[in-house]
Amino acid sequence: MNNALLKRNSGVELLRILSMFLIVLAHITQTASDLPSVPIDVATASHQLSHFMLSMFYMFGAWGNTIFFIISAWFLLESKEVKVKKLIYLILEVWVLSVLILGCLLPFFNRPPLPIIIKCFFPTLFANNWFVTCYILFYPTHTILNSIIHRIPKRKLLQISFVMFFLYVFCNTFGHKLFFPSMLIFWIAIYFTMGYIKLYLPNLSNNSKINICIFLVAIFSLVALTCVTNILGLKFSILHNQVLYWGSNYSFFWVISAIALLNLFRNFEFRSKFVNKIASYMLLVYLIHENLLFRRYLRPLWLDEIYQIYQGLNILVIIFLFALFVFISSLMLAVVFDNYFKNILDKLTAKIYNVVKRFYQLGESYILLLK
Questions:
Q1: Interacting residues of 63 by C-beta distance below 8 A, sequence separation 6+
Q2: Residue 331: is its pLDDT beyond 70?
Q3: What percent of the chain has pLDDT over 90?
Q4: 318: helix, strand or coil
Q5: What is the pLDDT of residue 194?
Q6: What is the pLDDT of residues 280-301, one digit of tens each?
Q7: C-alpha span between 67 and 38 (Å, rounded)
Q8: Distance CA 46, CA 233 (A)
Q9: Which residues, at least 6 apart from 201, have a Cβ–Cβ distance to it below 8 Å?
Q10: How far apart are CA 36 and CA 14, in angstroms?
Q11: How far apart are CA 337 and CA 98, in angstroms?
Q12: Burial class of residue 27 in the structure, from the number of CB atoms within 10 Å of its CB (0-12 exposed, 13-18 middle, 19+ buried)
């Protein structure tokens, strides 16, 4: 385990940690924006700089999600098989964590709604954490995508990458919901693009100056467009609530900047067991801080109490510090959960895998005999 941790490039793992903090910060901002006591709607235009900054905080979630996926995509491009045990373990981990939190918090709730309880028992089915559900759907397809990426000619891969990137990333930045998009299709479009970059653009990927320029241009463009939308929103009602338009999950600017960041952090190569160990808990941090019960009940309650007590503080400071607290607390809970439940989950995974494998082989044998 220690050797495996040391083999990873800690620069990339550091970026993974950063991306998760961006996600946490965005989720806390979303919670604050929904509170009646906080007089801020991040989607609307405003003269206040702090309001604009909160809008940026809100959009950081899409950026963090994109960075997190692109890091995974970079490593999955080297994979030659679907690790079924990994998939089973992830589904089990999500379920155990969801039910465990439900069991711990249920005594403190006065008749929680039945739909909420049902969703806690089926977290993957109901996509309580959409990113994880989407990843579970994407992961089994990655070896098929790899076969296509590695076998087709360079020109053909460029054509596929360009068309998919243009339709589902670029076009959906300017016109949301074009060409029947979904996060799964969006990820596949990014995956083909990452495949082309990894196979055929090594010089560009490793050129820090170019990647810094790409990153700065992408971020400046997004901020500039958001500023212009905010200014126009103060004058035209049709744009008044469109401040978040350019920072959606499908944003071209987030994708380009995320790819540039990955290249920069890959080149910032060092080895740290501590950094890599912390990074290994990031998915658990995501599952814990964005647990259905936490985000619907506890997080709004705590944030509202804090805001009422410290109203004299700038709302930006309150949200940032609370996000830091939630991130660290979730990390600590992730460490505890991993230490107590990893061995149990490993054993359950092995047993379920054997059962699934047996049934699959029986089904496969029967189907192959059909004429």
A1: 19, 22, 247, 251, 254, 257, 258
A2: yes
A3: 76
A4: helix
A5: 97
A6: 999 999 999 999 999 988 899 9
A7: 29
A8: 8
A9: none
A10: 36
A11: 12
A12: buried
Residue 212 has pLDDT above 90, yes or no: yes
CB 287 within 8 A of CB 131: no
Residue 230 has pLDDT above 90, yes or no: yes
Torsion of the alpha carbons at 227, 228, 232 and 234, rounded to the nearest 10: 10
Residue 124 and residue 121: Cα distance in Å, rounded?
A: 9
Burial bucket for residue 115 (CB in 10 Å: 0-12, 13-18, 19+):
exposed
DSSP code per residue over 29-97: HHHHHH-TTS---TTS--S-HHHHHHHHHHHHHHHHHHHHHHHHHHHHTT--S--HHHHHHHHHHHHHH
Query: In this predicted structure, what is the pLDDT of residue 6?
Result: 64
Q: Which residues contact 108 (CB under 8 A, 6 or more apart)?
A: none
For residues 73 and 188, what is the distance between their CA atoms, to the nearest angstrom? 10
CA distances from 28 to 17, 151, 281 (A): 17, 44, 19
